């Protein structure tokens, strides 16, 4: 990861703490987060997007400490459930700096949002409009944005592309449902339409699709003014900024993204005779991902005719991403020096299915053996937040490191925790 530094020929440190020490103290598997790296990434966003609202996308990773870091760094928060919202607000996050998303917000989600006073709710379907308006107390107005589908294909995998009409999110510009929803919202006295939103997808590594989105959304802002005489003051371009998981992979360049989006927005608005709306972005992965490492202990090494299977004490329950999206990771041996040449191995998990593969094409020293410690970089986003209870193994703990000190943020899910919830017979 950006933050792991060598502390000798055979070990790496994160936040100044050797990974071997963390594994000894907290056990494995374990997620380790570099607090300084998270904060540094928040600051890089504020520099790249001055004057914009930067909402950290909580779905990538959330715990109370993360809420506090993001708040202290001056970011807003994007949540998509009452669970994320309640965790943030009970930690002290200001609700007016929170935006609520969801293609199917439950009555409980909407009740929590209105009760706690979230700043913005992003409308994702026509049916949601009347339902939301009816829930807003008389005499008050809820600020909303409308999520539109601009018809732009971008994103690292089909399952995380959301800019085209063949997926469930948002309201299409092409078929007119976005325009229809805009008219409906403008007719609701308890809703205040502050702007448009779009999220193209995730793990996008080039700037171009964002610029196309800016152009399409300016076009729609212009039509809204023409048809309704309303100038919408906000434009939220979502998240999706890609990071490198393995050496040599591309990552989206933040500074260039910020500069080019602002230029496109300024030029497009000037041409359309519109004032420049206040910009918002919603990065998740690019803030949390590279700041995290997951530690595993090797439990078995099996050499077959065609493969070397290195099995670790975690797997698809703590990282479903390789199984879901076929993505690559670059595990590393830590804790002992090896003179053996690297060999291609398949790093697999402990779960009861053959698809439980963490890294199909890893390179590890040929003398890899049970008891070895492996570190998998770029594990801060969409690991714990997508962890499951498969095989009742319990979810790993989250440890924060900073300035040479480590502390437990989220404790390991114990077998007692799991059994406690099972109350029927
Ligand atoms: N805003 C909205 C409305 C979103 O739906 C998302 C992600 C984000 C922001 C943040 O996107 P990011 O900057 O993190 O790419 N589980 C998948 C990623 C799913 C992303 C879902 N929405 C993965 O592990 O790659």
From TrEMBL:
Listed EC numbers: 4.1.1.20
Cofactor: pyridoxal 5'-phosphate
Biological process according to GO: lysine biosynthetic process via diaminopimelate
Similarity comment: Belongs to the Orn/Lys/Arg decarboxylase class-II family. LysA subfamily.
Catalytic site: 352
Entry coiled-coil feature ranges: none
All copies of domain Orn/DAP/Arg decarboxylase 2 N-terminal, residue ranges: 36-288
Descriptive protein name: Diaminopimelate decarboxylase
SUPFAM superfamilies: Alanine racemase C-terminal domain-like (SSF50621), PLP-binding barrel (SSF51419)
Sites where the protein binds pyridoxal 5'-phosphate: 240, 282-285, 382
